[in-house]
Amino acid sequence: MTLHPAVRAVTERIRERSAPHRNAYLQRLDAAAARDRGADRMGCANVAHAFAGIPADDRFKVVAERAPNIAIVNSYNDMLSAHQPLGRYPDLIKDEARKLGATAQVAGGVPAMCDGVTQGTAGMELSLFSRDVIAMSTAVSLSHDVFDAALMLGICDKIVPGLLIGALHFGHLPTVFVPAGPMPSGLSNNEKAKVREKAAQGLVGREALLEAEQAAYHAPGTCTFYGTANSNQMLLEAMGLHVPGTAFVNPGNELREELTREAVRTVLGITKTRRFAPIGQVVDERAIVNAMSALLATGGSTNHLIHWVAVARSAGLVIDWDDFAQLSAAVPLLARVYPNGSADVNQFQSAGGPGFIIRELLDAGLMHGDVLTVREEGIRAYTKEPALAGKLGWADIGPSRDTTIVRPASEPFSATGGLKLLTGNLGRSVIKVSAVPEDRHVVEAPARVFNSQDELLRAFNGGELERDMVCVVRWQGPQANGMPELHKLTPPLAVLQGKGFKVALVTDGRMSGASGKVPAAIHVSPEAAAGGPLAKVRDGDLVRLDAPAGTLQVLVPDAEWAARENASMPGTLKDTNGFGVGRELFASFRRNALAAEEGACTWL
């Protein structure tokens, strides 16, 4: 299939823009790959320390027999339902490695926080920065430098991007990502959302709300909505970094275990003595574009307009929101998964899942087919689904098994992707339109300005917001307070919208990957704390959010707007942001964070 002109144009623009950075990155990669093995290169004391803790037979293999040694970087904890199954993976991986004449070591663990737990609390202000902590922890884990390959064990929001960023800084290593799969379906996401809206109105109490939440989040595995965690898994499939079809197989069954063992076999198949495909070569501009297309075709999380910018930078590639916008105009929406529809990810998987989407995009010329992956068969391997029939195998998916959930590229839900770039005198921002009713794609109303999400919630509870309005929530960017998700605002704003009011949110913060019902211009850059125009907005200013036109404007005369001074962040807010739940340890992160469109990176 001929490559779509928009895909070709975006890819070429990224390649040209990135050339000096990418060339320097590949030179470093080649230099690292050309060295002798760690156990041969290091001093005897270094080697003895590296392998003192492993069984004697494994020690003999890796040192005397020069067997491949796999690094396991694990984000296991049992605070995250998605990561709880990972506690059993290292023993399984080591067992499979021994069968194949190799060894494996847990090189290190990385922190993994649950945004579902911290949502709406002070702890959420560490969430975005935890991505870079995870990247650094991955680097520390791999810095022992005695590994021939690596397996990255992780699933959720900041964890996969952090692992990927860290792994790309060791781009000479063959690397495979290993997920654990989603929990079985519980209370539907739509029903859960209805209970939340009732609770916001005071129509049900805490007991009923807690019962609903626990019925939705009820078992080990990833949450079942198509938020950031599950978008991560879709993007890794599209980049060829998984064992094909691994993303949405539930934990705890034979197929899940066999796919994890296959990850060991896969990574050992791409070491130097066989087909050398280190992660730094797999993740090139074509792989990044493939991930972007998959994100847009599935209406995935807006968080990836930050995370994948940072991922690309780690591979010497420079992307921006214009790239996403140009692709979004060409890539059709092929999936309806909550919050873009009523289906959960288990139903998405049953309808055809990632393999169906990737096949449709490849056949329509909306993904690159000539890419390197962790599998010798290439990206087409990711258009099939795994099954166990005596042994592990893959089968064609065939047509959509439910056209209310996934559709072919010839009959999409929408001719364009799920994300839009907004520009105007309030800066640059993004909106996820795929989950917003079409009659809400344009909102023009007076501004109501808030300095925190708590201020908005107090105003809602006080009955002050029963009117058309654009809620401007500022001082929520990376430099101000770490750019928390503002998902707690979705139920009250949805209640107001349900009453017939025209309501929108404009913020330099983030929204959860599960949000979308209310039109929200998010990631506004430059942020208010960096002198951005959100700091000029006053109560009563007329604001127009126009998704079809791609604009975000405050309708104030140009001369008046230019002369207006920026408000300052309230001193009490600065004090609040700086202390408590460890926030003081992240002061340097806030000082050094780049803008959202630059990936909010703290290490550049």
Features:
604 residues, alpha/beta, Glucose Oxidase, domain 1, 3 domains, eight-stranded mixed beta sheet, 13% strand
Description:
This protein has 604 residues and is an alpha/beta fold. The chain folds into 3 domains: 5-34 and 68-184 and 219-396, no CATH class; 191-217, no CATH class; 419-598, 3-Layer(bba) Sandwich (Glucose Oxidase, domain 1). Helices cover 39% and strands 13% of the residues. The chain is built from 24 helices and 14 strands.
What's the topology here?
Blueprint: H1 5-33, H2 38-41, H3 44-51, H4 56-63, E1 69-74, H5 89-99, E2 103-109, H6 115-118, H7 127-142, E3 149-153, H8 159-168, E4 175-178, H9 189-200, H10 206-216, H11 228-238, H12 254-268, H13 279-282, H14 285-297, H15 304-314, H16 321-328, H17 345-351, H18 353-363, E5 384-389, E6 391-396, E7 419-424, E8 427-432, E9 442-450, H19 453-461, E10 469-473, H20 478-481, H21 490-498, E11 503-507, E12 520-525, E13 542-546, E14 551-554, H22 558-563, H23 571-578, H24 587-592
Parallel strand pairs: 1-2, 1-3, 3-4, 9-10, 10-11, 11-12
Antiparallel strand pairs: 5-6, 7-8, 8-12, 9-13, 13-14
Helix pairs in contact: 5-12, 7-8, 8-15, 9-10, 9-21, 11-14
Cofactor: [4Fe-4S] cluster
Catalytic activity: 6-phospho-D-gluconate = 2-dehydro-3-deoxy-6-phospho-D-gluconate + H2O
Pfam family, one: ILVD_EDD_N
